[in-house]
Structure formats: structure tokens, C-alpha cells
Write a structure and sequence with these properties.
With 579 residues, this protein is mainly α. It folds into two domains: 29-134 and 157-260, Growth Hormone, Chain: A (Up-down Bundle); 302-346 and 366-566, Growth Hormone, Chain: A (Up-down Bundle). 64% of the residues lie in helices and 4% in strands. It has a three-stranded mixed beta sheet with strand order 1-5-4. Strands 2-3 form a two-stranded antiparallel ribbon. Strand 4 (440-444) and strand 5 form a beta hairpin. Helix 3 (70-86) runs antiparallel to helix 18 (490-515). 43% of the residues are buried. Mean pLDDT is 75; it is low at 1-22, 278-296, 348-362 and 572-577. It comes from Cricetulus griseus (Chinese hamster). GO terms for molecular function: dipeptide transmembrane transporter activity; peptidoglycan transmembrane transporter activity; symporter activity. It is a multi-pass membrane protein.
Length: 579
Amino acid sequence: MSAAPCAQEQPRGSGERQPLVARPRGPRRRWRRTAAAAVLLVEMLERAAFFGITSNLVLYLNSLNFNWEGGQASRATLIFLGASYLLAPVGGWLADVYLGRFLTISLSLVLYLATSGLLLATITDDGRKSFCGEIPLFPLEPACPSADCPSSWSSPYCATTLYLVLLLLALAASSVRSNLTSFGADQVMDLGRDATRRFFNWFYWSINLGAVLSLLVVAFIEQNVSFLWGYSIIVGLVGLAFFLFLFATPVFITKPPTGSQVSSMLKLAFQNCCPQHSSRDTEGAHLLPDQRSLQWGPSPQEDMANFQVLVKLLPVMVTLVPYWMVYFQMQSTYVLQGLHLQIPNIFQTNPTDSSSSLSSGKSYYRIPEAWLLLANVVVILVLVPVKDHLIDPLLLRCKLLLPSALQMMALGMFFGFTSIIAAGVLEKERLKYIAANHTVPQLIGQDLYYAAPLSIWWQIPQYLLIGISEIFASITGLEFAYSEAPRSMQGAIMGIFFCLSGVGSLLGSGLVALLSLPGGWMYCPKDFGNINNCQMDLYFFLLAGIQAVTVVLFLWIAGRYERTRQDPASQSSSSRVRG
């Protein structure tokens, strides 16, 4: 746009003198952009594979191949999602200390390819028998009306093998996520801050484009054709990502491992907790400037300043954990709820088996339940550029006050609260039909579900609301963590941000496990895979209550953080280390 904003503030840290860097021109500049484009393409393919697994993992474990109950399948999905974020610091630490980002990403993609191949092997009969043994036959049935129904299994079939494969897959995905972001930023760093900011925008877009590819193609094939074909595509996507990453090696900028500040932060935390045992460790803090210049790495004063910034940032990021508990319901209990709503047909196909249709001899492809995730993705793809190119510049030109990052994060948490409330209200209405014995049998793949005669389109509001919340809470949270972190700790704090989001997913899984005990709201052993005897609406309302309380706590912590940032003494101590 030709018109510049009327009153544009200087970016944080702009008061310090920046070193003059000769920016590449001509062919070198094109190489940088080619390298960044290769990173974006690899990220899109990897995310397409990841969402291809998570979008229908509940359906896969709930199918006749494994016969897991609804609560068990949702819990496994939440554990996988949580581990894929919780293990993010592991890959970052390996890259910082031992391997470097390029080698870590390459080895992680190899592990990704191997574990996705193992998951593909569990689809075939011979593969399941080799890894898991014979499966006990417990088909899906409607809710049992009598009181002497058999109880559910405490340990689902093939649980050990599947959890091991999913955890290794989560380790690979988290290592790629934690390193590919900063590795891509390294490719354009010498092109200026604007190039780095634009890279992060396109990086987030590539994630969502991968999600669109996965949900439109892979999820449809998994639900309506077979998981064998769907998971074969996933293995192909990972293999293609690995090939492209290696093919682009000549244009990549690679950096050696530079070490990690984890040990310094742990040492300072120990000193603050037990000062009487750490007097000898603080001698380095009194070194003369000439003596400090001979030391490798950050000085003790810089370590202390970094530690103080970390102490201020952690409460803000920790209070986002309940939001992540709500956010990851989108790929677990929301999916489970959708399987028990009436899913419309798309078009008719000629069945090879006349028994595949419930009434006539005709068979239909059904809209994949995972397609409702597209509502979340479309909201992001539309609103992010609208906000970036229209709303924010308009507010700046009109000299209106832009909300702070913390205020936007609080707004995102509010939208997450409204999403889980909408899910609870819908589930309450669904259970009314179940109580009146108004159910519709529907065949999804090879599995029979007894659904309420409510259209699955009623789930669209909760998906739209969680998508809006992601724009304000997740994207702004990433920007906040990156911009507020000291330059020497940006990788570590980004890893902590991803790790805490994984903690939210695991806490959601733990809450499901707790409520699945006898007497709990999610305890419904008579359903054999259905959730018609559960009280999942109360689970949703409980999450909404936790989120509401946390929003109030977050606003209080955010206010304290803003006041601390505006303190002159705090600004002078942190401006020397902030990137």
C-alpha cells in the first residue's frame, strides 16, 4: 500500500544499535527464496500427513479392526496430540547441542517415514496378527437396555503396539515442527525483518494448506474407501517431503550446533530456590568486563537477565494450558460426537457387497466427519490475511488503538469458551433424542453407529468458533513468545510454548480417563464403541467452567506483566538481551 500509517510505533528493541548487514542481491537472494519455498513445501506435506493421521484416528481405533471404545479412542488421540507438542523441546535440544537443525530434521523425517509405515502395517490382517495377535470379536451394538450387560475391557486390543508407534510418530512430528520453523527462518534472516515476518505468515498458511489437502482427500479416502489406501498416501507424503528436503540441500543455509542454555537456566533456578548451597556458583557474576569477554557464550549477567524474562513469561504461557485442553477437543471428542450425528450422503456408488447397505441394495459415500475441520481451516485462511492487510493497517492509519498481544490472547480464550459451550448444548440436545429412543443407524465405512436424527451441520458453529479462537490465541501466542523472548532463548521459549500446548492435550486426556472410571460421566461400557450412554455434555460444560476461571486469572497475570514491562528498570535490563 502506498499510504504509510500516520503514527507507527518503533518495534520493540529498535532503540538499540543494530549491526549493518550486507543483504544478498541477485542470484543469492533468489537462492534464499528458493530455500524458504522448499521449507514451506516440506512443511505442507508433513502437515498433510499429520492431519491425515489425527483427523480419523478416533474412527480408526473405533473400527472393527480394533474395537476400541469411544473414550479409549479419544484418549489415545489426545495423548498422541499432546506428545507431538510435549516432545518438541527434545528435538530442539538435540539440534542445539549435538546435531544441528538440518541433520535433526533429516533423521526425524526418517523416523517419521518408518513409524507411519508401521502404522500402515497394522491395517492389514497379517500385520495386526504379527504385531498384536488375534483380535477378540466384540462388534458395535446399540445401547444395552438391560442391567446385566458385559463390562468393557480394561486394556484395548493392540494397545501396547499402537501407543508405542504413536509415541514414536509424535517424537518425529514434534522434532520436525520444533526445528523446521527456525530452520526456514534462517534461510531468510539476512533479507531483513520484513522477510522473516512474511516467512512466518506463509509458514502458517502452508500448515493450513496441508490440512486442506489432508481433509479433502486423505480423510475422505480413509472413511469411504479404506484406511489402507489413506495411510498409504500418508506414507507417500512423508517420503516425498523427505526427498524434497534432501533435494534442496545445495540451496540451504546450515548452521552448526551452538549449545543450549537449559543447564544455565536450571542452575539459576536452583540458586534462587537454594541460595545457601550456590554461593560458589555465583562467583562468575562478579567478573570484570575484560574477564567476561574471554568466556564463551552468554555472561552470568545475561544468563540472569534471560532467567528473569523466563520467569515473567512462564505464568502467561502456563495459563494458556486450559485453552489447549479445549482446543484439542476439535480432533477428539468433537469427532466422536460427529460420528453419532446424522451424516448426509454425498453420492451413490455401486457396492460390491449387497450387505453393505442397511436398507436397499444401494451404497453411498458419506461426508467424512473430519471435513468439519475445514470450517476451522477456512476461517484461518480467510481471516488471517483480512486482519493482516485490512484491519490492522486501517487501525493504524486512523490512529486507533491496536489491542495488545495479551488482550488478543484473552479474546481467543473467550472464543474457545464459546466453542465448548456450543458443543455441550448440542450434545445435550443429542442425548434427548437418545433418551427417547430416536436413533438412526448409519454405516460409516464398515462400522455401524446409532446416531441421533440431528444433522452433523449443527457442529459447524463450534468448529468456526474454535477457528476464530486460534487466530487470536494460538497465532498471537506464537508471535508473543517469539517477540518477547531474548534472542539467545527464542528457540527454547518457542519449545516451551509448544510443550505447554501438549500439556493441555494430555490434561484433557487425563480428564477423559478420570471421567471414564465407573460412575464417571464418560463411563459407558454398555455401548461397545457408541457414546449414547455417556454424559459427554457434562464433560464439555466442565471444560467451559475451567476455561472461564482461567480467562479471569489470565487477565490478572497479563495486567501484572504489562505493568512490569512498562517499568523503566525492567525495560533497561531486558532490552540488552531481547531480540
